[in-house]
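the two lines:
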Amino acid sequence: MLLYIFITCFSFILFLKPLSLKPLPPWASEIRLLSFWFSKDLFLFSYLGSLRNTLLNIFCINIIPLKTSIKKMSLSSRAEKSALDDETGGMSVLDLPELALECVLERLPPAGLCSMAGVCTSLRERCVSDHLWEKHMKHKWGRVIGPAAYREWQWHLASRNYLGSCKHGKPKGFMRLLSIIWPSSWSTPKIDPINNSRQRSSLPVNSIMSCYLALETGKFWFPAQVFNRENGHVGFMLSCYDAELNYDPRTDTFQARYPPHGRRAIATESGVPWERLRAPSVDTSPHDLHISECLHDLLPGDHIEIQWRRNKEFPYGLFSIPVGGMALWVTWSHVMEMKIIVGVVTAVSKFYLFFVASTTLCSIYHEESDTVVLEFHQYTPGSRWRSTTINRKDHREEGNEADGFYGGIRKLFKNEEISRWKRLWPTEVLE
Amino acid sequence: MSSSTDSPTLTTETTQLSPQPDTETAKPTKKITLKSSDNQIFEVEESVAMEFATVKSFFEDSPSSTDIVPLPNVTAKPLSQVIEFCKEQIKFKANPDEAQKKKYNAEFLTEKSDKDLVDMIPVANYLEIKDLLDVLNQAVADRIENKSVEYVRNFFGIDNDFTAEEEAALRREHAWAYEGVDED
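prediction for all of em together
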């Protein structure tokens, strides 16, 4: 009996769909709508209209809650949507207007989105989409993920044999995210894995969600830089080291793996807090010299970062005098560490001291002064680490085996970056 | 359904069944008649009805209209709750008090059942009441935020259409998200 009623009613509902009222806006349909409303007594439909609602209330809510709506959802076409709007008698979340459901999903934190993705197939399709994850990715990982990490992620995917086939194409997924974070320093990748959806439950490998989860669960070691390596050991103050990092969700800190140099083993450090991490400031490998583009703009008082490396463990032999030739670079790429040290330029040159007193001479001496003195204020005056001299015309690398080598220079423009270094300033002056 | 969720409906209905009790005594305010899909008549003050962008544009398009406004997509119960909410919001518009407003919104939401909340969303969406929609979406998100998959299915009345293998794969993939969820 119940089944009979059900079948009858359902056919009513289906029959009524095309007749049912359009949603109020646009109000163009108002007249038709109202006339329909008022003239309903002439028709059997009036009776059916109220009957329909009652039936919907009874059957759609209580007896056939979701089977139909899931079916509708999988069709999920625009045309279907207006029909859905008409049947608000029995609502499920999947019947919510696109926008409203989208709004709920947008407000969910990452773990909530993951749970929702496990509810049913149609919600899964929605919950894995990049636009929902972009915000979370940027919010949690944007500060520490840069182009190098992206390349590493691509490699990580490839090494897990996810890469069934490759294609040249438009940046998407994680790529798109990074183009937001790093708008200028970005080039189209050569390899872009296809979103492989052989299995409907498997996550598109190049989705932002999959990257987020890999980071969040510590499955992915990514390259980034760590300030004050080994937590402020005197020799590492005001420095920033390249490292591979791995997130530990239980402690909300990172494990850092510093690349080996010389005969030293890989150094690791655990419990590194977020504050000591940053995405590499330039997209230059720690084995390469950063090309300094700011040399001619350096002014007294500027804040800069400079690459620095030492070679105690691995003597250069013939190359112990700074030459800057190619042979040196080759050796570095295997054995040397690079670190970036912050420096405050106080006096650009002897000539430049004039500049402070007499601004009219500024431009003349600016052109003529090629020697730039970099002072590292964290070291006590007289310390061999306190200052170094570079030539702004042809600086590539300056230094010697005893004091280390100073490489590429990057001028800091953003107050945010400068104050970050300042926060790391040691409480006492270093010898 | 709990009695607490029924009571607001009843009180709202009562005020509607005795129309314009205060118009004789107080200054006359224009009333607008709304009709739900289940043929319930709601008389609301114009200021409240103008909170509904959909109704507002109806009257902007035909200012002289005195007809009943049919709301074919809206049933009585969620509509009465939406009206209740908007009535309060008007008061806050007249006397802005963010703390009180927050307090009221929180109370309004906590006393609603899951179903009430989900039912109100399409109504708020259809009537284009942006503030309410924001509040509701956030409330729903808060209620399911740290819950298990089973809880969410139950919350929305959704059937699981994954195969056992798919479900197992999902659990492996998202093990992280399955940890530390609240008790259902």
